[in-house]
Structure formats: structure tokens, C-alpha cells
Amino acid sequence: MAKTWYPVVDYSVCTECGTCVSMCPHSVYDTKKAPTPVVKVPDSCVDHCHGCGNRCPSGAITYIGDDTGWTPPNGKKAESDGACSCGGGSCCG
Asked: Which pTM does this prediction carry?
């Protein structure tokens, strides 16, 4: 798990759909605050996983420590090559 990699939510863009909260298998988000995405355990985020950001329909999620050149898809389904940096397969989609 990462200490210098975690999601940041731009609440001015977030529609509070809850997609990021419901899809994260690493318990990064506070499920008691759902559907509002509140990062509760940033150290649980898997280094270089873009799973929640790729699924965010409004493009509201970026990452502290991102050096990959990734940009939020802004409502478009991200193209996936099937690889998952956390080793979980579909979790990073």
C-alpha cells in the first residue's frame, strides 16, 4: 500500500454518485459518508491504481503522487488494457 499515493476529490466537480466509494476494495473511502466520497484511509490506496478515477463519471478524482501523466477521463469510460497495478485485476479498471 502507498503512503505517497492516494485519491483527492474535487468537490466542485463531484456529483456524489458514490461510484468511487462502492468500487474500492481497499477501504480507502469512508463508507459511512457514502455516497459522498471522503478519503478515510489514504495509506490503504494501492500505489498507481487509478480504479476510482477511471470510473468517476465527472472526472473529479486525481491522485497525490501521480507521475504517470494520467488525466481524469471526465465522464468517458477509460480504456483499459486489462492490467492492474494493484494485482487485483478488475479493481483498477
From this structure: 0.77
3.30.70.20, 3.40.630.30, 3.90.1150.10, 3.40.50.720: CATH of 1-76: 3.30.70.20
* Secondary element (H or E) of residue 63: strand 61-64
Q: Please list the residues that pair with 63 across neighbouring strands.
A: 7
- What are the domain boundaries of the chain? 1-76
pLDDT 10s digits, 31-82: 999 999 999 999 999 999 999 999 999 999 999 999 988 988 875 444 444 4
DSSP for 24-60, please give it.
-TT--B-GGGTTS--B--GGGSPTT--HHHHH-TT--
d(CA 24, CA 67): 21
Residue with cell 501521480: 66
